[in-house]
Design a protein that fits this description.
The complex is a heterodimer of chains A (430) and B (310). Chain A has 430 residues and is an alpha/beta fold. Chain A contains 14 helices and 18 strands. Chain A has 2 domains: 101 residues, Urease, subunit C, domain 1 (Roll), CATH 2.30.40.10; 310 residues, Metal-dependent hydrolases (TIM Barrel, Alpha-Beta Barrel). In chain A, helix 2 links the parallel strand 7 and strand 8. In chain A, helix 4 crosses helix 6 and helix 7 packs parallel to helix 10. The longest helix of chain A is centred in the middle third of the chain and has 18 residues. The two termini of chain A are 27 Å apart. In chain A, 62% of the residues are buried. With 310 residues, chain B is an alpha/beta fold. Chain B folds into 2 domains: 144 residues, Aspartate/ornithine carbamoyltransferase (Rossmann fold, 3-Layer(aba) Sandwich); 149 residues, Rossmann fold, CATH 3.40.50. The longest helix of chain B has 19 residues. Classes of the chains: A alpha/beta (430), B alpha/beta (310).
């Protein structure tokens, strides 16, 4: 492969403490050199003056829906959405049909992604067979076939015994157990957060404490077993507190937060008049919870930002609120939302945000990338901090169109995504 | 002057002036029900569809009577006898009805927000006849009309709402309406049936004796036995003993206290028969006023002027 020179951009590589105008030389799919004035001889040159050059962003919580629900999303469309949103890699949740609980499904995903994927796809296997919460999946085979973690996302593991065994058994395979923390008996038939807003709207609510109870339990089980736990889409103040205390005790726990839990509250359900684009699980919480998640992100309790990109068909969403599917798309809005609302409002500085989208997720799951250090894969996200655009679901690459952020005008968008030195998405000139 | 709302989705979006107009119009129209020939041509040529996804006796028949008295052409769809049993979605059903050009659809549905969903996607006017645990605006209006007839005002009245507040759309609509009109509401029920955050809207007590002390009116809510799968209280026997409206409790209330209940009654659970059928009960007045209030809603939303009705 020919050499590619990314010239004159502001390079931010939090893993190495770099924030400076530098050239990045890509050779044979890897970063060869990052320096001021790299020789251009024999290289194709991309002038990135005025733009920000970051390690490729990694979304560790994506639903690609394939196999089984190709009407909602495919590996091709989901990874195109990722590339368009500035992500050079995604981790695919196993709640496909059939569930990714065996090496056959894992290999299908890996092969399909190699053939049709616009970005890297790292499969996540099911914690339990069929995600039924009873018997462990074959972690050895899953790991060998390419799974980087296990999770029963969307179907919280009910039994403490099974959760304990998962955390224990995953250890020799280096698999992280990602848990969707929810005490199911407290959230039966719930369609939003429990609180003054659910009372007002007459919708059944799930209390924030139902998440926190499950987080506490999972953290204690990680402590008991020495297993490696990752808390998915943390949304409640008491959950953040549980992770913070666990980390202080030395428990091997990490956590992620989504842009929607960082930016919205359950008031969005009321303000939108029961719009099903505000329905997801965990639900949008109260302001105190939102603020606590932001604090957790700032103080390092929360290790990364993840989208929980969960595409659905129009038929799944254009129904009564109670009947609508849980979930919204996120890959194509996460980066501009974070740039505009977190960096733009000075809640995070740019380097912190880049870290939470690249170095952070790479560390959580032990993935390659997350840095522009020479020898790393040439996965690069380029941002235009000055570009202003409206969120328009009609222009999404994803098949999913449901987002509570439709119509928001955001400043700061991803404009170029490289995966292994290849251009996966180029929006430089639009 | 005409009524400024296109739909009646709830009491919460109304201002006190709107509520006043609805009640005054109902008072004006009520007289028609006492005539030997109970029919006026006010809504001739208007088509109204009653779309009921939940069982209803009072509300549906009350809307139907109101439609006939005002000469609207109407039909009622109950889901047991419709394509809903074949799996048709709410939106498809509504879009098919819309294609028949009705002026108004009156909907009752178990999903909170279902009327808002129709209002967003369809052209016709929408009236909420009860959505999930959200609102039941015409019930609150008929309760208010009953109170106003008996007491001459709403402002300053003390009203106790007792029972299953958690699942009750009647409680929510009444709470909005009475608060907006300057009445004082106190809520009462077992803690398991008090929804979170409601104490920000009205004081809450767990003792029925405290709730009804000094009350001008007591609104008893139905214990929705069909929804009581969550173990909200141990037995109906204990519920009656601790939270039911018994003759002994009424004896300690204000002498001229009014007792309301939206029906259907669970006799011997939330209310003792001797109270339901006793001298303070205005339960059947509520039903009569229900027709008048629904006439007012139909009339105002379909373009009638408040002055002409009085």
């Amino acid at each position: 492969m020919s050499r590619l020179l990314l010239r004159g951009g502001r390079v931010i590589d939090p893993a190495r403490g770099i924030d400076a105008n530098l050239d990045v030389l890509v050779n044979d799919g890897q970063i060869e050199d990052v320096a001021s004035r790299v020789s251009t001889r024999g290289a194709q040159v991309l002038d990135l003056k005025g733009l920000v050059v970051c390690p490729g962003f990694i979304d560790i919580h994506t639903h690609l829906r394939e196999p089984g629900r190709e009407d909602k999303e495919t590996i091709a469309t989901g990874t195109r959405a990722a590339a368009a949103g500035g992500f050079s890699a995604v981790c695919a949740m196993p709640n496909t049909q059939p569930v990714n609980d065996n090496e056959g499904i894992t290999r299908f995903i890996v092969d399909k992604a190699r053939a049709e994927g616009a970005v890297r796809v790292y499969p996540i296997g099911a914690t339990t067979r069929g995600s039924l919460g009873e018997e462990l999946s074959e972690y050895g085979d899953l790991s060998e076939a390419g799974c980087v973690a296990v999770s029963d996302d969307g179907r919280p593991v009910g039994s403490a015994r099974v959760m304990r065994r998962a955390l224990e058994y995953a250890k020799p395979f280096g698999l992280v157990v990602i848990e969707h923390c929810e005490e199911g008996t407290l959230s039966e038939k719930a369609s939003m957060n429990e609180g003054a807003v659910s009372t007002h709207l007459g919708l059944r609510g799930a209390p924030a404490m139902g998440e926190a109870i499950a987080v506490e339990r999972a953290v204690l089980l990680a402590e008991l077993t020495g297993g490696r736990l990752h808390v998915a889409h943390i949304s409640a103040a008491a959950s953040v507190d549980a992770v913070r205390r666990g980390k202080a005790r030395g428990v091997r726990v990490t956590a992620e937060a989504t842009p929607h839990h960082l930016l919205l509250t359950d008031e969005a359900v009321r303000e939108s008049g029961y719009d099903t684009s505000t329905k997801m699980n965990p639900p949008l919480r109260a302001e105190a919870d939102r603020a606590a998640v932001v604090s957790g992100l700032r103080d390092g309790t929360i290790d990364c930002i993840a989208t929980d990109h969960a595409p659905h068909t129009v038929d799944d969403k254009k129904v009564e609120f109670d009947a609508a599917a849980f979930g919204i798309v996120g890959l194509e809005t996460a980066v501009p939302l974070c740039l505009d609302r977190l960096v733009g409002e000075e809640i995070l500085d740019l380097s912190q945000l880049v870290s939470l989208l690249s170095t952070g997720p790479a560390r959580v799951l032990g993935l390659p990338g997350g840095t522009l250090a020479p020898g790393s894969p040439a996965d690069v996200s380029v941002l235009d901090l000055g570009r202003k655009r409206q969120v328009d679901p009609a222009r999404f690459q994803s098949k999913g169109r449901h987002t509570p952020f439709a119509g928001w005008v955001l400043k700061g968008w991803p404009v170029l995504t490289l995966v292994g030195g290849r251009v996966a998405w180029d929006d430089l000139r639009s | 002057m005409s009524f400024s709302h296109r739909h009646l989705l709830g009491i919460e979006p109304l201002d006190p002036g709107d509520i006043q107009t609805l009640l005054d119009t109902a008072d004006g129209l009520k007289e028609i029900l006492a005539r030997p020939i109970k029919k006026v041509p006010a809504l001739r040529g208007k088509t109204v569809i009653n779309l009921f996804y939940e069982a209803s006796t009072r509300t549906r028949s009350s809307f139907e009577v109101a439609e006939r008295v005002l000469s609207a052409d109407s039909l009622s769809i109950t889901t047991a006898a419709s394509s809903v049993t074949k799996g048709e979605t709410l939106l498809d059903t509504a879009k098919n009805l819309e294609a028949m050009n009705p002026d108004m659809v009156i909907i009752r549905h178990a999903a909170s927000g279902a009327p808002h969903f129709l209002a967003r996607h369809c052209r016709f006017a929408v009236v909420n006849a009860g959505d999930g645990a959200h609102e039941h605006p015409t019930q609150a209006l008929l309760d208010a009309l009953t109170l106003r007839q008996r007491r001459g005002r709403l402002k300053g009245l003390r009203v106790a709402i007792v029972g299953d507040i958690l699942h009750s759309r009647v409680a929510r609509s009444n709470l909005w309406l009475l608060s907006k009109m300057g009445a004082q509401v106190v809520l009462c029920g077992p803690p398991t049936l008090i929804p979170p955050g409601i104490e920000g809207l009205a004081p809450v007590t767990y003792r029925i004796e405290e709730a009804i002390e000094g009350a001008d009116a007591i609104m008893m809510l139905r214990i929705q036995l069909e929804r009581m799968t969550g173990g909200f209280f141990p037995t109906t026997r204990e519920y009656h003993r601790r939270f039911g409206l018994t003759a002994e409790r009424v004896a300690r209330a204000k002498k001229d206290v009014l007792i309301l209940h939206p029906g259907p009654l669970n006799r011997g659970v939330e209310i003792a028969s001797e109270v339901a059928d006793g001298p303070y009960s205005v339960i059947l007045d509520q039903v009569t006023n229900g027709v008048a209030v629904r006439m007012a809603v139909l009339y105002l939303l379909l373009g009638g002027s408040p002055e002409a009705a009085s």
